[in-house]
Fold these 4 entries.
Entry 1:
Amino acid sequence: TTGNVPTNATYWNQFSAGSGGIWNSGLSLGTANQVVRVNSGASALEFGDLSSDVVLLSTDNITTSTASVSRDVFSSTYGVYKVVINGIQPVSAANSNLHFRFRRSSADLTDSNYYNHAHQAYWNNSTNADGVHNETWGGDYGRIMASNHKTSSTEYGANYEFNIYNANSSSIVPQIVGIGTLYDDNGYHRHLRFSSWYQGTNKDVNGIKIYFAGVNIGSGNIKIYGLK
C-alpha cells in the first residue's frame, strides 16, 4: 500500500465505523474527570461523568502551616457526606481544639446555633479512665474533639472520620456523628466520640470549614466523599 492513501478503496477496507459519541468527526476529549462509557442506546462510546454511590469530592493534603480548610462541595446529588481526616497535626499543642463550621453561600456560619457533645477516654500501659466531656449548647462552632490535640510529634497524628446528614434539607437540621483516635505527647492512647448539629433558621448548608481553635494546621490529609 505504499503511496496509497487510506481513502483509496482499492487498497483499503474500512474495518469499523462508530455511529456517534467520541468517534464522530471532530473528536472531543470530553471534560476533566469524565470516563469513556457505552451510551444509553448501546450503539457507541461516549464521555460522561463517573456514576458511583461513593464519590471523592475533595482532597486537601496539608504540608505547611495552614489556617483552615474550607470546601463547598455539598449539593442535592448526595444524601450523606463522609469526612476522613488522616494524620492531622497542629503547629503547636496549646489551644489546639479541632473545630468545624458549616458554610452557606461561600461563607462560614458563625451564629450561636451549634449544639455539641464530645467525649474521650484514654489508656496507657498502667491506667485507663473515662476522659473529658465537652458540651456546647448554642455555641458558634462545632466540636470534633473534646480537649486539646496534644500530639505535636511528627511520629503521631490524629485520625477522625464523621458523617454529615441532612446537609441539603431545608427542614431537618444538619448533623454530624464521628469517631477518632490519637496518641498524645503524654503517652496516652485516646479514643474520641463526638456529635453535633446546627439549628439555624435556614438549615441547609453547602460546605464545611475545618480548623484548630487557636493554632494553624501543621500537616494532615482531609478528604470529603459524597454518598448517594
Entry 2:
Amino acid sequence: MFRWIDTLHKHHTGIFSWRVVPLLNPDGFFLPVPSRTNANGVDLNRNLPTLNWDTYALQYWKEKTGSTPRKYPGPAAASEPESQWMVDQIRRFKPDVIVSVHAPYNLVDFDAVSRLDAPRRLGILEGKKLGTFPGSLGRYAGEQHNIPVITIELPHSSIMPSDSEIRRIWIDLVA
C-alpha cells in the first residue's frame, strides 16, 4: 500500500480522487503472528452492517465456519470502532469503486450488483469469485450500496510481489 501511495504521489494524473487506508486492522497486523481479528477477537470483514446481519451473521459463523474464532463477526453489526470508521469513510467519500488488498488467495475478486465489469485479471492475479458473507465489505459496499469492490488477494501476506508485478497490477487496475 505504501508503494502505491508513493506511485500516486509521483504519477497522479488527477483523473481519479483516491482515499487510501493503508491498514484497517493494526491490532491483528502487528501481532507476532498476524491475525485477521482485531483486539476484541472480531473479524472486521464480517462486522459491517449488511442487511439482515442480526439474522445471518452469527448463524453463518456457527454453521459454515464451525465457530472458528478467526471469523467471529462480533456481538453486533458495526460493533467495532474500525468498522464504524470504515462505514463513515464510505459514507463521506462516496467512492465510485473500492479496492481492498488481502492475502493469501493469489487472485482478484469483484463484488457488485452486476459482474459485467469484473476484471478478468490484474497483473498476475486471475479473476475468481470468492463470494460475499454477512458483514463483509463485498456484501456491504458491492451488493448493498452498489459500490464495486475489487479485492486484490496477494499470494502472501508477508512477501511482497516484485516491483514489476506490482506495476502490472497497478496498470491493469487503473485501466
Entry 3:
Amino acid sequence: MPQDARSGVAVSGVTRSGDFDQSFIITIAATDRTRKVWSQGSQIEDVQGADPNSFRATARGFAVTEGQEVKAYNGGVDVGIPYFCGHILEVEPTSKRKSDRVAYRFVATDYAWLLDQGALITGVYGGIGVNTLVRQLLASFAPAGFTAGYLPSSLGDIDSMQFTNESFTDAMTRIADRVEGGALWSCDYRKVISMWPTSEEDPHCMGSTETVVDAGAHREPTYRVDLTQVRTRVICEGGGSNTTSQVAMGATTIPV
C-alpha cells in the first residue's frame, strides 16, 4: 500500500481490501464531486439481503439538495463497478462559525425507494409463475426505467394472490415469502429487479470477486458489508431419541 494512503478501510472477511484507486468517481447531479465528497469520511453501507442501501457523506465547497442523483463507481461512472447509485433524501447544512463555509451532511438512498413512488398495486393473480407475475407488476406498476433481471423458473407458481393498495416493495416481499423454501429479491444499481430462491447465491455476486487497489491519498473512506441478514442456523427440537455418538461442531447430520 502506498505511503500516502490514510486508512486500510474495508471490513475483514469480505473481498474488498485497501483504499480506493483514483478511478473511483462520485458524481452528484452528473457533476464529478469525488475529491470534495469522498475525502470527507464518506461511508457506503451495502446490507446483503436488505434494501435500501445508503451513502453518507459531507459536501464542502458546493451545495447539495434533496432529490439529486448520486453515483459512485470504481472504473468510471456507468461503465465500471457500481458501488452505489441513488438519490439524496436527507440534507443537514452545518457551520461551526458564521465565517465558515457551510458543509452539507447528506444521506442518499439507493434506487429501491423509487419503486414505491409509482401506483399502488391492486389486483388478483392466480395460476401464474412467480417470474411472470414479477414481470407483469414491473410493467404495470413500477416507475419507468426499472427492468426484470434474474427470475428463474425454479421460483415456482402461485395459485392465487390478492393485492389491495400495496406498495411495490411490500408486494415483492410477499411474493418472495410465498415461494416454497423462501426467496430473496433485490433492486440493483442499474434498476434491475431480480428474485431467487434462498438456496441460490445472490445473482449479482455469483462467481465474482471485487478487489479494490489503492493509488491515491483519499482520507477515511469506509465501505461496510453486513451479512447479518443472512440466516445460516436453525434450532430444532428432537423427538426424544439420543445420538449414537458425539456430534462434531459444524456437522450437518446427527446420528440417532
Entry 4:
Amino acid sequence: MVKTWQCGRFEFPLDRPVLMGVINVTPDSFSDGGQHVAAEAAIKHARQLIKQGARIIDIGGESSRPGAEPVLAKRELDRIMPVLESLRHADVALSVDTSKPEVMKVTLDAGADIINDITGFKDPKAQALVAEHGRCGVCVMHMQGEPRSMQQAPVYDDVTAQVFGWLAQQAQHLVELGVSASRLSLDPGFGFGKNIDHNYQLLRDLDRLVALGYPVLIGVSRKSMIGAVTGRPVDQRLAGSLAGVIAGVYRGARIVRVHDVGATKEALDVWQAVEFGPKEHT
C-alpha cells in the first residue's frame, strides 16, 4: 500500500485527502468553460484556489466534456503555458490535464509536477515519456471511447470489474516500464463513458479500487451524475458534489479533484474531525 504520492517537487502523505483544484483554460468545458479562458483570469482564479486550500492545481487546455472536439497541441500549449509559468514558483503542485505526448513533454520541461491523462496513458509515447521523466506524478484515468462519443451508449458487462481491472493492468504495465508505484494514482473516470448507474456503482465499490494499493483520485465535482440525482443545473451542484466527495473519501479516495475548493475543504475538515479528532481553525 502506497503511503505517499510522489509528484515532482512534492510528496503528499495519504493519511488524509489532498485537494486538487480545477483550472480549465478553455472556452467550452462543461462547468467553467469560458470563465478562465484568458490567462490572467485563470491565474487569478488559481491563486484563489491555493488560498482556499488546494495543494494541486490541475490545468487543462482542451475540453473533455461529452461531444468535445479535439484541439491541436500548439493551441493547447498556448492556453496552458502562461498559467503554468506564472504558478511555477507557488507552493503548489502543478498538474497538466492532457493526453498528448508533445504537450506532456513541453510542460514537464517547464516544471509541471503531474500529468493527468484522461485516456489512461494508452499512447506508448506517453508511457515512455513519464517513465523516462522519473519523478512526475502520473494520474491514470479510465475512459470508454473518446469525448466526442463516450456518452452515447456506454455498455459494460460488469462495470466495476472491467474499469478497475483495466486500471490495475495499466498501472502494472507502467510499473514494468519503470514508473514507480509511488508516482501512480488511479481514477475511475466518473462520467467518461459511463451512464448514471455505472457512475454510482463505481463510487459504491470504490474500496475495491483502493484495495489495489495505489492512491485513488476521484472527480465528481458538478458532474451530470450529481445533476441526475439532485435535479440541479451545473452551477447549483455544490451540495451534491460535496456529498459525492465525502462518499468517495469515506471509501478510501485520497485525491479529490474539485471546482469548489473552499467549500470542499470545510466539508473534509468536518469529516476529518469525526475520523481523527477536531483541529481548531486558526
